[in-house]
Amino acid sequence: METGQKEICVYLIFLLHGLGVLLPWNTFLTIGVDYFISYKLNGTNPSTEYRLNFFNYLTAASQIPNLALSLLNLFVVIKGGLHRRIYLSLIIIASICVLTIAFVFVDTYEWPLCFFLITMASVIILNSANGIYQNSIWGLVADFPGQFTNAVVLGNNICGILMSLLYIFILLSRMGIRLSSSIYFGLALLTVIGCGFSFRFLTKNKFYKYHVSKAVKSRETACTDVLHEGEDICGDNSDNRPSTTSHPSFETYCSIFKESWRGLFNIWLVFFTTLAIFPSVLIKVELYPPGRAFDIFIYGDMKTSEMLFRQLAIFLNFNFFATVGNCIASYVQWPKSITIPVVARLLFLPLFWACNYKVGDESRELVFIKSEWAFVILITLLSITHGYWSSLSMMYAPRQVGQSKSQIVGMMSGFFLVFGIASGIAFTFVEPRIVSLLGLPYSFLVGKDSL
Questions:
Q1: Over the stretch 185-208, which tens digit does the pLDDT of each residue have?
Q2: Within this chain, do residues 225 and 368 fall inside the same structural domain, yes or no?
Q3: Same domain, 256 and 241
Q4: What is the pLDDT of residue 78?
Q5: In which band, very low, low, confident or very high, does the pLDDT at 449 lie, cut at 50, 70 and 90?
Q6: Distance between CA 434 and CA 418 in Å, rounded?
Q7: Is the pLDDT at 450 greater than 60, yes or no?
Q8: To pair with 228 at 20 to 30 A between CA atoms, which of 94, 250, 337, 386?
Q9: What is the CATH number of the domain that holds 144?
Q10: pTM surpassing 0.85?
Q11: How far apart are CA 43 and CA 40, in angstroms?
Q12: Membrane-spanning residues where (predicted)?
């Protein structure tokens, strides 16, 4: 295989792992309403608290262990290092997918609470394993040029596109809930299995071996290796050198953080801003005035039109243009300091609050942005900037330090990515209150006229 082909092969495998990192979890989110709330938990007592607040529980059960394990993965010494962590994580994730598929065909009508508890336990285990998996992938890819880091980010957004297209296909085909759920989780399972097999090929690739062995030697000299004892990272031990390395001290981590904190802050803020808006705020933006017909995406009855609008205008729009932003970052990497534009993205928060964002049971009287076309354009801008700045922030962070420290910064980047997601989601719980409070002086000063 030519050197260029080997490089492309490594790029595609990292892209696949970017897809695999998110696909199992995205499956739970995508079919949460149709499968869990409307079907599995709609048992003898549909008005149960855990059914009505299912997504709150789902979010807590996913983000807390994901964040905790991402942090723990930075410091805990495991025999076999990142490779073993990735393999074990993939086995656990695949097992949860198999268990979830099995429950699709089990009648849980008489015991919805038990099924809910099993689901939450599965989500906790899945996201604990995923936290380790994601964090390890970011540490691994930090040994490579920036475009390989971008391959993982690109895979993340392609995952969103696939989920949106699959949801639209299933919606229009009127497929049964059991069959559609099996397809979702089956696709997630096949992707995870593919990630496992691809990783086996990855470690035998000469291009991969060259970059990793070069980085390992640099880390061994500086005593900053997190690929611990018992791991032959290059697939051989031709140098007959011992595979045990010194684990970096806590002081080393603090020193590396001081060097890279600005890049890590950029990563956190990019994902905080996006997740504070997408999807929780966007899906609560309604037509203004309420009850009028859509100007775009009219198909069939009103309910189908609303579901299509949500999938096309929000989810597919966001994921597609976020991918476009990722692709742009592969060719255009400007400016070198991105903190100012990353902070400027916070302006998207008041812009989306100015739409008909429903914060309670009553309709809002003060709405500045009434057109769904303006709403769609804002989502497009949000997604392109997310794709572009998330790619650059993940690519830039490991460059702020020497090669001996890049792997640790890569793993720190993975943690701050998850931290940004978790804090953004947490912020969505207080956003309705903030918008309600802001509406009081606005109503007094402006009245009901839009700008």
A1: 999 999 999 999 999 899 899 999
A2: no
A3: no
A4: 64
A5: very low
A6: 24
A7: no
A8: 94
A9: 1.20.1250
A10: yes
A11: 7
A12: 12-37, 57-80, 86-106, 113-133, 153-172, 184-202, 265-283, 312-332, 338-355, 367-388, 408-430
- Contact yes or no for 393/342 (Cβ under 8 A): yes
Q: What six digits make up the tokens of 375?
A: 């709403």
Regarding whether 211 and 253 lie in a shared domain, the answer is no
335 preceded by a cis bond (ω within 30 of 0): yes
Same domain, 269 and 221: no
Same domain flag for 215 and 340: no
Among residues 202, 220, 248, the one where a domain terminates is 248
Kindly state the DSSP code that residue 246 receives in the 8-state scheme.
P
Same domain, 352 and 215: no
Question: Could you give the C-alpha distances from 237 to 224, 229, 232, 234, 242, in angstroms and in order?
Answer: 20, 13, 7, 8, 9
pLDDT band at 46 (very low <50, low <70, confident <90, very high): confident
Determine phi and psi for 160, rounding to 5 degrees: -65, -40
- pLDDT tens digit sequence for 343-363: 999 999 999 999 999 887 666
Kindly tell me the number of DSSP H helices and DSSP E strands found in the chain.
16, 0
Q: Share the mean pLDDT of the chain.
A: 87
> In 3D, which of 203, 207, 258 has the Cα closest to residue 232?
203
Provide the token pair at 221.
């000299």
> What mean pLDDT is predicted for residues 272-290?
90
Compute the average pLDDT of residues 209-220.
Answer: 86
> Distance (Å, rounded) from C-alpha 401 to C-alpha 430?
37
* Per-residue three-class SS string for 3-14: HHHHHHHHHHHH
pLDDT digits 0-9 by tens, 67-83: 999 999 888 766 667 88
Boundary residue ending a domain (248, 268, 301): 248
CB 138, CB 417: distance < 8 Å: yes
Overall number of domains in the chain? 2
Q: How many CA atoms lie within 13 A of 69 on its CB side?
A: 21
d(CA 362, CA 359): 8
**What is the residue range of 3's domain?**
1-248
161 and 230 in a single domain? The answer is yes
Q: Give the tokens for residue 150.
A: 């971008």
**Start-to-end CA span in the chain (Å):** 61
How many Å apart are CA 370 and CA 289, to the nearest integer? 8
Strand intervals (E) in 25-152: none
